[in-house]
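Notes from hallway chat w/ T.B., transcribed later so I don't forget. T.B. wanted the structure written out for a chain they're using in a teaching module, and asked if we could keep both sequence and structure tokens in one place. Agreed to drop them here.
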Amino acid sequence: MHSPIETIIVNAKVRTLDPGQPFAEAVAVGHGAILAVGSNAEIRELGGSARVIDLDGAALVPGLTDSHVHPLMGALDTIGADLLDANTWDDVLHGLRTEAAGKGPDEWVLGWGLLYDAFEGRPIHRELIEEAVGGRPAYIKFMDFHTVLASKAALDLAGIHGAIQFDENAEIVCDAHGVPTGEVREWGAIALIDAVKPELTHTQKLDHYHRQMKEFAATGITGIHGMDGTLETLDVLRELEASGRLITRLTMPFWIMPDMPEEDWAQFLPHRDDRGRRWRGGVAKFFIDGVIDTGTAWLYEPDSEGEGLAPFWPDPAKYRRAVKFFAQNGFACSTHACGDRGVREALDAYREAGAWDGIRHRIEHIETLQDIDFPRFAAEGVVASMQPLHMAWLNPTRECNWTTRMGDARCDRAFPIRNLWESGAVVALGSDWPVARFDPRLSMAAAQLRHAPGNGREPFDDQAITGLQALEGYTVNAAYTISEERRLGRIRVGFCADLTAFETDPALCPPEALPSNPVRLTMVDGEVVYRG
């Protein structure tokens, strides 16, 4: 009889995260599933003529899943000058001049990853970039993707000459004379410039998506929890899978925005259970607030600039109705909430929606949280989805934009990963790429260091977690979040053959050494999608 085993992986230090068999030496895989876990001798005997992958002592762990990524949007929004490491204004100008070099006078200059602290105290204004971009249309996204800095030429093309009213908490920032400064906040406003910016063809977009998934695979990522999507997104996933280019396992949501008429919500119901072999839907994504850095997060007390008291949804009651509608129709709900008021409103909305059977709702970011709300996550079954690399922008001297806006009391409860973990909450970890780098080694290191690896800073606070917990945040907890804990997140017979191999076990590797810990193998659904 023909053996179902197609591949055996041997000579590995296997960390299964399966309490029944925590460690092993080898794994057998066939038809997308893990078929056996055991010693080298056992698996070689079972393997017969199967393909052999010899890891030569490397560590094999469950495939890593990033629980917060914008995979398709990010593949298109990271075109242009990469400014994520531009820490000074001179760095920013150098990046923009390099990007503008050789472009025609009407060609757009694009950039992304602009840091608020890179302004070094200067007011955000388009005049700061006009010379660097040579008067061309310019569209520079900030690191959080909630704000854009646009040049005068770009504003003129979009017909933006003054303040505009929006249905959501969005803004064309203007000076005292009503003239746009170039700072454009939140998506309703940003969409006006998107409408006139050059568009890629459908084929070009598919190429970018596939290229990006190959980059994910090279860092050990096997799965993604996407954070933006529409009905059209499902067609893109079908097309990528049919062409053999969907090499990352994706869970993609429907993005429900404040200006969407309530009668339009029903259009998503027939598509709740749409799925392919490597993709699925079933999630509704909401934003209850914006970000702390621009004063658009929803806080109980105003920030140092007197901002932060308005929700992203002008009518929070409509947000609660939306959550109830989707939750009661079997969708998992995911809410972006950075501020403490936003987090509590999301928790209240989930509780008001009533009990759910086997579906986990989640809150994204949780950058500040009041003490009374810590126990609610575990008690009410809400997952805390957090991004350790966001700590990279927080300076322990508390002199950066985030800490200055928040003040000492709220800084003492910034990004409270450890406290949530110890409260019994399930904490899923991710990057929020393209807001931060997607490499999970960086994120797992930051979770242990409470700063970005290699930046020479002291820990921001005492909220560090262990290496094993960081790995669990990218594996078993990620699987639990999407109710897939019976087939993802562990190396166990019958589970999906999503596997990642590193030179050194990431649970044991010193965090400062994690970024240089080589990826030896990435396997999705039994297919080798990267070999280092």
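Follow-up for T.B.: The two ends are 34 Å apart (CA to CA). Might be a good example for the class.
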